[in-house]
């Protein structure tokens, strides 16, 4: 049995990571709202930060924003709640 047999059923799926959880998706573009829903978050309370190599990041705050996805893309969520003042 070759490794190709495993990919035969769903060759279009790509792997992404949000908040340390791995997801397999078929879409090549998803909105911030759709991506946050994968981890059970509401875009009214959260936004996405796309992680790139070398410490670079992109902040995605609009729930309607379309994000082009690629294999092994990584995101973390951010909280929209204001930080408490000490």
List the defining traits of the structure above.
single chain; two-stranded antiparallel ribbon; Ubiquitin-like (UB roll); five-stranded mixed β-sheet; 86 residues; mainly beta
Could you explain the architecture of this structure?
13% of the residues lie in helices and 38% in strands. It is built from two helices and seven strands. The protein has a single domain (12-79), classed as Roll (Ubiquitin-like (UB roll)), CATH 3.10.20.90. The chain has a five-stranded mixed sheet with strand order 2-1-7-4-5, covered by helices on one side. A two-stranded antiparallel ribbon has the order 3-6. It is mainly beta. The chain is globular. β1 and β2 form a beta hairpin.
Supply Rg.
15 Å
Strand content: 35-45%
Summarize the helix and strand pattern as letters. HEEEHEEEE
Strand element count = 7
- Supply the helix-strand structural class: mainly beta
CATH class: Alpha Beta
Average of per-residue pLDDT values: 88
Estimate the global geometry from the Cα principal axes: globular
Distance between the termini: 61 Å
How does CATH name the architecture?
Roll
Major beta sheet, specifics? 5 strands, mixed
Poorly predicted runs are: none
- Largest sheet: spatial strand order: 2-1-7-4-5
Write a concise synopsis of the structure shown.
The chain is mostly beta strands and 86 residues long. The chain has helices spanning 4-7, 32-38, and strands at residues 14-18, 21-25, 29-31, 46-51, 57-60, 66-68, 73-79. The protein has a single domain (12-79), classed as Phosphatidylinositol 3-kinase Catalytic Subunit, Chain A, domain 1 (Ubiquitin-like (UB roll)), CATH 3.10.20.90.
């Amino acid at each position: 049995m070759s490794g190709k047999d495993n990919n035969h059923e769903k060759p279009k799926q790509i792997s992404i990571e949000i908040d340390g959880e791995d997801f397999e998706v078929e879409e090549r573009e998803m909105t911030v709202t759709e991506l946050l829903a994968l981890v059970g978050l509401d875009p009214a309370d959260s936004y996405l930060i796309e992680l790139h190599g070398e410490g670079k990041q992109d902040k995605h705050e609009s729930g309607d924003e379309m994000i082009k996805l690629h294999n092994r893309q990584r995101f973390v969520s951010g909280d929209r709640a204001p930080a408490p003042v000490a």
